């Protein structure tokens, strides 16, 4: 049996909607989390999303300036060594 009182759903219906697109290409109809543009399922929840800064860039250091200059120096040494051997 349903209750006789009216439900106050005005705020829920007028709240901003999530801006994400579903797999079908239609916009998500869930309400956005307060102060955000996405619902809790699409990144509006606390702690969701990528960490600040690019932490993945610090894994190996292969592309640091020093590493690139070192590889360039090694290539130069190999090339000059080959040229020296060709002169014999």
Task: Please explain how this structure is put together.
The longest helix is centred in the C-terminal third of the chain and has 23 residues, at 65-87. The chain has helices at residues 10-14, 65-87. With 88 residues, it is mainly alpha-helical. The model has no long low-confidence stretch (mean pLDDT 85).
Query: Which bin fits the share of residues in helices?
Result: 25-40%
> Strand count, sense and closure of the main sheet?
none
Query: Low-confidence segments, ≥5 residues, pLDDT <50?
Result: none
Strand content: under 5%
Shape assignment = rod-shaped
Q: What structural class is derived from the secondary structure elements?
A: mainly alpha
Compute the number of strand runs. Answer: 0
Radius of gyration: 29 Å
Q: Quickly count the helices.
A: 2
| H/E element order | HH
Report how far the terminal alpha carbons are from each other: 101 Å
Q: Mean pLDDT score, rounded? A: 85
């Amino acid at each position: 049996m349903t209750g006789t009182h009216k439900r106050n759903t005005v705020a829920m219906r007028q709240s901003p909607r999530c801006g994400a697109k579903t797999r079908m290409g239609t916009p998500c109809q869930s309400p956005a989390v307060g102060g955000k543009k996405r619902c809790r399922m699409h990144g509006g929840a606390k702690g969701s999303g990528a960490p600040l800064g690019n932490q993945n860039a610090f894994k190996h250091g292969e592309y640091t300036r020093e590493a690139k200059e070192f590889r360039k120096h090694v290539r130069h040494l190999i090339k000059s060594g080959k040229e020296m051997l060709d002169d014999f």
